[in-house]
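Deliverable D5.2: sample structural annotation.
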Amino acid sequence: MTSIREVENLDITLAEPLDITAVQSLHAELKIALDSGASVSLDGAKVERIDSAAMQVLAAIFVYAKGHHIVLELRSPSKELAQSAALLGMEEYIGIKN
């Protein structure tokens, strides 16, 4: 049996609607992944909607990872995710480059 501490890279697919109803579980899942010491890759391709609460959690997790020298990347952000990040001024925080 492989524990999370034995995994070097973790891939997490973000939920399609990423909103306040998903914030608590998103935060818990990301915190566990980051505390494992593994590199974490978030797949944002399926995000159809994201609200400001979820965006704040993503930004906070990215800031936490950077401060703790943990590799965290956002792969394939959907158009909606990128647009929401731009609207809220969060592109830099969550690793979206223009």
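Annotation notes: The radius of gyration is 13 Å. The longest strand covers residues 9-13.
The annotation will be released with the project's public dataset once the embargo ends.
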